[in-house]
Amino acid sequence: MFSIVLNRNNIVNDGLNNKMLFRFPNSVNFKNNFIAVSSVAMYYSWYNVSNTLQNNTFSYTWVDSLGASITYTENIPDGIYEISDLNNFVQFACIKNGTYWITNGTNYYPFEIILNINRYAIQINTYLIPIISPAGTTQIPAPVGGNVGWPLVVQNVVVSIPDELNLLFGFKVPLLTNQNLNNAYIPPTSNYISKNGIGTLSYISDISPQVQPNGSVYISISNINNPYTQPSSIIYAINPSVGIGEQILDRPPNFTWSKLIDGTYNELRLTFLGSDLHPIAISDPNMTIILVIKDGSEWGGK
């Protein structure tokens, strides 16, 4: 049995850090050989929100003081986000667009995204916007060229969560919240939509949120033909149990051997795949993967 060590020097330089190439000093003839993962050391650095995942946009509509509807479409920068981080981005967007207000020194926003731990869900709340400034409230001036101001009729902003991002939040279909014009909206009988006495509408996930679409990352190796998996090259799965940006140290207690296809090779290729079995982009190239190769005769294989 011998080991193969792959590190950042073996990464294919395409900017994705998801492919590693190991070249043997000389061509090697494999016959009745098996391969397994011995250890993995890498950082939890693959995005859960990105343009590649197509889950990085949302929009909301505010009706201004002239009665005109203004729709703001926001692009979330690629990154690794907790729900609180996404809510912070909502607040940033509202401040940028002048669609918030200050009451007694406290900022208020027309909607928010929060955790509902008891329901194992994400909750989106939209708030009734008054038609005049409440006592002690200051409407923030609109950005240059804008005309935000208070709406002419009490209502909630309309929030649109499109495909893919709705899955991250745990909604079966793209979410479109209700305008609640004149505070007259009556939610249907549902466990997922509710309204309180002051016009706040709450929407709660109706499926489990997929905050990290790639909760597992698979290791795929060339020269493998496993008839029991698809794709047939998968030999291991990494399930991070650390925080974002922390190091994953994974050392299986027992080797799971996969047979190498008999033949002569001068290289092995390793690829990291996401839950959808497509190559996943990894931000941090600092990683070390140790593989072990064993001849079947060492343990009675034929």
Structure overview:
The protein is mainly β and 302 residues long. It folds into two domains: 2-46 and 214-299, Jelly Rolls, CATH 2.60.120; 57-204, no CATH class. Helix content is 7%, strand content 38%. The strands form six sheets. Strands 1, 3, 19, 20 and 22 form a five-stranded antiparallel sheet that branches. Strand 6 (101-103) and strand 7 form a beta hairpin. The protein is elongated.
How are the elements arranged and paired?
Elements (H helix, E strand, L loop, with lengths): L1 E5 L12 E12 L2 E11 L13 E7 L5 E7 L7 H15 L3 E3 L2 E3 L2 E6 L4 E6 L1 E2 L7 E3 L15 E2 L1 E4 L3 H5 L5 E2 L16 E3 L5 E4 L12 E5 L12 E5 L8 E4 L7 E2 L3 E11 L14 E8 L7
Antiparallel strand pairs: 1-22, 2-21, 3-19, 3-20, 3-22, 4-5, 4-13, 6-7, 6-11, 8-9, 9-16, 10-12, 13-14, 15-16, 17-18, 17-21
Structure summary:
The chain has two domains: 131 residues, Jelly Rolls; 148 residues, no CATH class.
Radius of gyration: 26 Å
Mean of all residue-level pLDDT scores: 90
Following the backbone from N to C, one meets helices and strands in this order, namely EEEEEHEEEEEEEEHEEEEEEEEE
Structural class: mainly beta
Number of helices: 2
Key structural traits:
302 residues; mainly beta; 2 domains; 2 helices; 22 strands; 7% helix; elongated
